[in-house]
Amino acid sequence: MPARSDVVAARPVLRYDGPMKPSFNTAGPCVAGEHYMLSPSGRLGQVPRLIDEGKYFTVHAGRQTGKTTNARWLAKTLNAGDRYCAVWVDIQAAREEPEPAAAFRTILNKFEMALAIDLPSLTRPDTTALLADPATALLKYIAAICSQAPRPLVILFDEADGLVGRTVVSFLTQLRDGYVNRSTAPFPHSLALIGMRQVRDFVISTEERREVAWLGTTSPFNITAEAVTLEPFSRDDVADLLGQHTEHTGQRFEDEAVEHVYHLSQGHPWLVNALADQVVNRDVEDRSVTVTAAHVEAAKETIITERRTHIDSLIARLREPRVRKIMEPMLVGGQVSDDVLDDDFAYVKSLGLIVTHGGRCEIANPIYREIVPRALTYTKQFGIAHETSWYVRGDGSLDVPKLLAAWQTFWREDGHLAAAGFLYREAGPHIMLMAFLQRVVNGGGRVEREYGLGRGALDLMLFWRSERYAVEVKLRRDTRTLERGVRQTASYLDASGLDEGWLVLFDLRAEPTWEEKLFLRDERVGNTLIHVVGC
Length: 535
Fold this sequence. Notes:
Layout: E1 13-14, E2 37-38, H1 47-52, E3 56-60, H2 67-80, E4 85-90, H3 100-118, H4 127-130, H5 134-148, E5 153-158, H6 165-180, E6 190-195, H7 206-211, E7 227-229, H8 235-249, H9 255-265, H10 269-283, H11 293-306, H12 309-317, H13 321-332, H14 342-350, E8 354-357, E9 360-363, H15 366-376, H16 378-381, H17 400-420, H18 428-441, E10 445-450, E11 458-464, E12 467-476, H19 481-496, E13 500-507, H20 514-517, E14 520-525, E15 528-534
Parallel strand pairs: 3-6, 3-7, 4-5, 5-6, 12-13, 13-15
Antiparallel strand pairs: 1-2, 8-9, 10-11, 11-12, 14-15
């Protein structure tokens, strides 16, 4: 077996000394010289070890996290060494094609194009003859390539999780057949399937799962031991990337700005690049002006409001039933239902929507936390005819009592009906309140949210100028909820360093009238004042 690969080494920053100045990339793979970028080596984790051990495995990560950039770099790096030869094959063109005959014609054509780039000295077999039997076409094509490869072959199949139906079953089955017989017939030394999902999520229907039941065994794609993901950027990585812009242009990012980019993105590569690109190429084009945290915050708002491509793809995922089963209880602070499986958690996590910290599931980063409720209420916000100026006092402060009193009226007249029509019906009251508050404070403030599974409540923090206003949200289904809600709000205020806050209590019981549900009441817990807003 070849010695351990040196793919992972000290993580250098890729510099470009040519005449053109690189840019922050927000579309497609990164190209050295055209884009600011970091060496992919530090994000590959266990991939070099798996290759050295001759494993077949999956690499999964969310959209626009650098999967293709890393895969292309890996193939080029392996081919530059003397241990392996490698080919990167993008099979996205065959996605959503259920018929194997058409799909494998496309896959083999893409394979030929990839070999012409990565391993041009190899002779490609006649695909016309092979495609006479689609059930063995890929198997025989790969075997023919391996038989003439000068070194152990590594294949990287990109966008593999886009295959569907009988195509994905045949694709996986042919790879398995080659794997189990590779001691007697030529087949790749190592092979990776790259996409957003782990291999167990490639197949959806019950019939497909029966046909690939071997996936749960010690197969070439043992999904427990051999599924890896890409690490996000670290704080130092973000600083290095932004520092490249400073090096090339002289425009500096304040330390607080660098920290805010990392905080908002949590190292998600596309978000880091999108924030930086918005700031330096649109908001602060004068290179003599130093980038501040306020500039980064404004860029965040623009990215969310304009619903850039990455944001739209994220929003589309929120409509999937498997995603909704996880995200809806997170919005209300409850527990997931009994029909949610570990695979559902793994799937939503692999999409990059959630992360786990200390055993607790959370939405992956502050930008996604903003996007989720805004996306779910996007069209509803247009029907909220409330202007920011209505709730600003003469001294410029936010009149929160007036704002929440207006919310009660809105909820009774229109909001409760709109909430009932949400796809996320259980979370309707919560996200309708967030839509209302967001619509109003967008004129000069922001709403930040803290939500996760098992909290039993939703924490909101309204920021207006230099002031903070804490709001706890709770659903009332019994007589004890008010008491619990007051205690939780007091605890939230104490943790936030505030001695005054609001508890919005949605009464979901059928018996009370609107007159009984709508009230304003003050409660004290020690020195803490809590304004209870009944809805």
